[in-house]
């Protein structure tokens, strides 16, 4: 079993590169992995939203995960995304998965169903029961149409030892600060939003699972590290260096923005699977200009 890690720092929600015909581009996937490791990110998250996991078949998910693990070769930890809106299917996937080289599971709150808070609690209770690894809750109301309240997060954190962290992408600072204030010892609060990672860290957050760090792992990981050390002047410089490009990345859909950026950087092609499509030409050209500015700095 993979060694336990403390989840502090920068995790990268890695993209899944595709060829023009829609097949997985494993060569480019290796390039992105190596780019992230060279940038000194603390860990990689496979099969997250940014990896377009919802359009990957089961055998493709297994192949992508295996390839990422083989390329990494134990150099940094890997978190695996296993989530969905069918609790029985999610728990079965966890039970059947080879988790021998995985450090934790990231599981998104059930989407579309719009469960009550008790339903969310019971969903994660079932996941906790079958998971041999730490579980990271993933609260992203903009995608799920359902918020995990601070009360439910804290209840789960206190009731289940292996529910070890939450990736908070609610953008609700009152909620995030309440979790940070009342969490049990050891429970991590991880930013799920690149643009507000710095303020979350200043409130006592522990790190980020990032999209932009696919493209700029060095700058973003260092920003996070400096903030965790309390060096906010240095962290702020790095934060503001990337704010304009980060804003562009999400202005016409994600992961369309980050795939455009990665193509501009020569790391993978700007191909997505339907129903996602590439960003429009205006955003692509703006990204090209902003990335050129960053590289000159």
**Low-confidence segments:** none
Q: Helical stretch count?
A: 12
Structural class: alpha/beta
CATH-wise, what's the superfamily? Aldolase class I
Could you please describe the fold and organization of this structure?
By secondary structure, the chain is of the alpha/beta class. The protein has one domain (9-232): Aldolase class I (TIM Barrel). Helix content is 46%, strand content 12%. It contains 12 helices and 8 strands. The chain has an 8-stranded parallel β-barrel with strand order 1-2-3-4-5-6-7-8, surrounded by 6 helices. Helix 1 links the parallel strand 1 and strand 2. The protein is globular, with a radius of gyration of 18 Å. The chain starts with 8 loop residues before the first strand and ends with a helix. The mean pLDDT is 96.
